[in-house]
Amino acid sequence: MQHGYFDDFRAVRDQHGKIFSSPERLIDAQAAQPFPPTQMLRPDGVQCTIPPPPGQHQAALLCTAFRAGAEDILASWSTPFKERYGSQQGTHYFELSFVESAVMSVWPFKQIILRAQLGKAPIPSPTQATSSPAAHASRAGSSTPGQSLAASSSPQVPPMPPQQLMQQKKQAQLGKESASQPGTEISHEASQQQQAMPSSAAQPGAECNLSEQQEQQQQQQQSLVEGSTDQNSPGLEQNEAGAEVGSLKTSTMQTDYLFHFGDTTRIRKALEMPNRLTGYAFLIDSNGLVRWRGSGLAEKSEVDGLLRAADQLLKSR
């Protein structure tokens, strides 16, 4: 009797996707079966073969799925593996997706599937988008950096008091009335010189005072910045060191997403994958031999067995 979709669904429901039990220890190399060579496609359309060439990876985890609903199952195996080894040399993770549908294996659906995986790129965060110089300029208004710099550097002259303006008007009227008298020309010119002298002398002084105040403010700001950097320098060094250590801890290994379009009967029989609704995990060594395997949602004991097997493969190199 042929094995159908409802049989697979019933097995997943009753057995939680467990098709076979995971070994408690690393499978001996003499008893291990090779992973069948299979032609795969990368998201960019480049062809490759799984397993990778001998000696390329000491311990590589290959997770396989036939349906999109098995993503959580694959993550239950891959997440602990990637968190444990990160970017450690000799380890790698492959996620294999098998597309058996004849419709999805031809253009344009095939290209849509590949481009969907290829398009999963990081998006710039809103803080990066708003921290650009153009964004700052838009928030500051229509003024350019050159205009703001000129406005801040030019000294501001205080407005003239109203009483001084009234005196200048009166003196101007008196000057017009006495312009016809010759004796008053000299006194008028002298009075104008006396009035001009304080005003002209006041302007350099104001400029000097403004420049001195600006220099003092700059010196105070510089001293405050130097003091704060001196006090905070040990903490900054610790933060930088902590950031480096944190980046090493949270780093994950490179993931290769590979696709196979077409019939999968040969590989399913070789690796004992009769159920298409669940997911499978295979740990292979540098020679492409399956040294450990799992199916369905990973349990705590199975994850521990996977990590122990990978440790043994890494120690044997």
The oligomeric state is: single chain
Based on DSSP secondary structure assignment, what is the total number of beta strands? 7
Q: Main β-sheet: number of strands, strand sense, barrel status?
A: 5 strands, mixed
**Rg on CA atoms, Å:** 40 Å
Describe the protein in words:
The chain is α/β, with parallel strands linked by helices and 317 residues long. It is 52% helix and 14% strand. It contains 10 helices and 7 strands. A 5-stranded mixed sheet has the order 5-4-3-6-7. Strands 1-2 form a two-stranded antiparallel ribbon. A hairpin with a 5-residue loop joins strand 1 and strand 2. The protein is elongated. The two termini are 47 Å apart.
SSE blueprint:
Blueprint: H1 5-15, E1 38-41, E2 47-50, E3 59-65, H2 71-85, E4 91-99, H3 109-118, H4 126-130, H5 133-140, H6 145-153, H7 162-177, H8 183-250, E5 255-261, H9 265-270, E6 279-284, E7 290-295, H10 300-315
Parallel strand pairs: 3-4, 4-5
Antiparallel strand pairs: 1-2, 3-6, 6-7
Quick take:
This protein is of the alpha/beta class and 317 residues long. The protein is 52% helix and 14% strand.
Keywords:
317 residues, alpha/beta, 5-stranded mixed β-sheet, two-stranded antiparallel ribbon
